[in-house]
Each structure stands twice: as structure tokens, then as C-alpha cells.
Amino acid sequence: MQVSVETTSGIERRMTIGVPAVKVDQEVEKRLQKTASTVKMNGFRPGKVPLKVVRRRFGEGVRQEVIGEVMRDSYMEALEKEKISPAGWPRFEPKVVEAGKDLEFIAVFEVMPEPKLGDLSELKVEKPVAEIKAKDVDKMIDNLRLQQAENKEVKRKSKKKDIMTIDFVGKIDGEAFEGGSATDHRLTLGSGQMIPGFEEGLIGAKTGEDVSLEVTFPEDYQNKELAGKPATFDVTVKKVEEPQLPELNAEFFEKFGISVDTEEAFRAEVEKNMERELKNAINTKVKNRIVDGLLKTSELEVPKALAEQEIGRLKEDAVKQFGGQMQASQLPNEIFQEQAERRVKTGLIFQALIRQNDLEADQAKVDEKIEEIASTYQEPEEVIQFYKNDPQQKAQLESLVLEDAVVDFVMAQAKVKEKKVSYEEAVKPAQPGAESDED
């Protein structure tokens, strides 16, 4: 077998492969003979069809089948011979396929890139630091009570935490705008669901009243066409309800899977859950900031094949989120392109760091993570056994622990600056790529 490799761009390769004619022709002949021994054709007894008749009838199809298999096998053999790691399946371009001549074809594919990493000691990472205060626990318990509250309609003036049912029409320069109107919209006053000034302007209103609100969309509003613009909202208050908070008792505690009898014990369990949430939130933010920094300081080309695979996975995830009400093929690739490339780049950079620094998943930390997950369930021992007895689930956890090892490795070399923040700010979700490291 003859092999030559040409670099056509940064990570694209054109591999020309030549296979001796005898390898193809012998396999074609072997399959035609096997076909002749079993095929049924009018005018001939089973297994007695002349080979020349079988060749005339099936020869071309069998040859194409053999050529396809030989190209695949020869390609895999050539990769091993040349010590090349492809990023995806190739595109085959047959050149010479005639019987009696050496088979020649070209395989066009991308290779796995080797990221050029920046100086980790120059990487700046801001790490949020927060502590849980009594008022944070109070607020969390209030939110839990609100989740279980029964709402009672009131005729008084509305106040913060009341639930309003409203109709509203938003206008800019006297014209209604798309997405600015709603009917029977339920709104908790003080929730921050609406833009600044909207909820505040409804405090004090009563059922049946019409209220006109003058507000301004924030400069960073997600809809750029509305960002920074003043608007008027004409609001009709249809109902005002006051949440009736449940008592803090054993029945209430049990609704959250906490089997205790006293408020003090319940607070302790709530605080323990908040500590776990805080730890996970900080770890996630630090990881996102490290990834942002690595992406900015590393150089690598994203293989199209890997990006397409990741887009496929993101599409499937989106279909699941929509309850299977659409097909993945209905979603355009473009809306997932940026996220897919970020994921692929991150994976390649992490793999390079693991490979270059011999990082491994510490088994003790894998067991620790299993126990941490199990502690959130009522039957932790069952959960522990589930993970330990399911190789696939355990492998996923090992992958997460290995990612943590990469983060720890980078943190040990980077310039880390701690910043004190409130619990609320620390646990507030942040989108990957939305945070920037300070210069």
C-alpha cells in the first residue's frame, strides 16, 4: 500500500492511498463465487448459475461494495502507519477504480489540533468569596414559604410581595411595540421580573385601577432595539392577592424532604444546602473564568467535524428541553455555532493540559463526589451503590473530577484575586463567556 500525505491548510490533510489491484480483484472474485453458490435466478437451479452470468448481473455492485470497504480499511491502516489522529471521518475521492488497475483514492480529513497554550502564570482569575449570614437563611426560608403559600385576594392597596394579575400595553413614541403587551399576566411585586420602575410603580395600586408607568429600558437590555429607550406602559390591575405563608412546622419541613421537628433544626439543614449551593456556584464561576482566560490566551483551529458533532448534541439537548415537540433538523446550525466552538476549544485545551502535565482523576475525590451527590437523597447508600456499580455513570463523574484537576492545576499557577461578594451575588448564575477577567 502506497501512502502520501499533503497539508492543504492548518489542520486539513489530503491523503493519497494506492492499493494493489490484486487485493480488490481477489475479494470481488471471492464474493461473486459465494453469490453464485447461493443465488436463485430463473432458468437455473439454485447454486448452479454460471459465474459469468453472476458477474454480468452483480459484478458492478459487488465491486463498488468491495472498493468502499477497502477504502475504509486502507484509510484506517494508513492513519496508524503515519501516526495521524483524525478529528472526524474523511471524505473519500476515488481516482482509479477500474478492474485490473491499482485502486487509488484520496481521503480528505482534519487532524486533531495541538493547542498553543499561553503562559498560565500570566492568567488573571477573580474568585468570588462569600459567607452565609443569618439574613440569607431568613430570605431562603421566606422563599420556601412563598413556594408553598396559598394566595388570598385582597381589596386594599398593593404592597411588596403581593401578587398582581394585570393587563398591560407598552408604547415607545406612542406606538405599541412587539412583545410589550400581555393579558392576565401574574406578577409578584418586588420580584425583579420586569424592568426597573415597572413593579415599583404598581405598589399602592388597587384592583380595578388603571396605572400609567413611565420607565426606561436598561442600556444592557437583551433586545438591542429597546435598550436605553424610554417607554410608557398602560396597566390595568385586575386582581391583587396576598400570599398566606404556611407555619414553620414538621408538616412544612417534610415538603422539602427534611425530617426534623424544630425550626432550629430546619434552619441548620437549609443552611447546609445553601453552603453546598454556594460552593458549587463559586466553583462554576471560577471554572468559567479560567475557561474564558484560556480561550483568550490559547491559539487553535476548531475542526469542522468536531464542531458539527457538538452542534448535533446541542440540538438534541434543545429538542429534549422543548419536550420533543420539534425535530433537531428544524433547528438552524447557526444558533449553536458559537457555543459549539467554545465547547470544542475548551475540551481540546483541557485535553492538552491533561496530556502535557500527566493529570489524573483522583479516585478518593471521585468517591467524595459520589458521597456529596448521595447526601442530597433520602437513601444515600442506594445512590452510592448505583454510581459504583454503573461504569458509565462512574466514568462521567471521573471526567468531572478530571476537569476539576485541570482547574486546580491552572489556579495553582494563575494570578488569583479574591473578591468578597454577598451570598446572593455569589450564587447568581452567570453565562459562560459573559464574564471577563480583570486586566
Automatic annotation (TrEMBL):
It is found in: Cytoplasm. Its EC number is 5.2.1.8. GO terms for biological process: 'de novo' cotranslational protein folding; cell division; protein transport; protein unfolding. InterPro entries: PPIase_dom_sf (IPR046357), PPIase_FKBP_dom (IPR001179), Trig_fac (IPR005215), Trigger_fac_C (IPR008880), Trigger_fac_C_sf (IPR037041), Trigger_fac_ribosome-bd_bac (IPR008881), Trigger_fac_ribosome-bd_sf (IPR036611), Trigger_fact/SurA_dom_sf (IPR027304). Keywords: Cell cycle, Cell division, Chaperone, Cytoplasm, Isomerase, Rotamase. The keyword rRNA-binding does not apply. The keyword Cell cycle applies. Residues 161-261 form the PPIase FKBP-type domain. Gene3D superfamilies: 3.10.50.40, Trigger factor ribosome-binding domain, Trigger factor, C-terminal domain. One of its GO terms (cellular component) is cytoplasm. It catalyses: [protein]-peptidylproline (omega=180) = [protein]-peptidylproline (omega=0). Residues 420-439 are annotated as: Disordered. PROSITE patterns: FKBP_PPIASE. Signal peptide: none annotated. One of its GO terms (molecular function) is ribosome binding. Pfam families: FKBP_C, Trigger_C, Trigger_N. It comes from the Bacteria. Involved in protein export. Acts as a chaperone by maintaining the newly synthesized protein in an open conformation. Functions as a peptidyl-prolyl cis-trans isomerase. Consists of 3 domains; the N-terminus binds the ribosome, the middle domain has PPIase activity, while the C-terminus has intrinsic chaperone activity on its own. Belongs to the FKBP-type PPIase family. Tig subfamily. This is Trigger factor. The gene is tig.
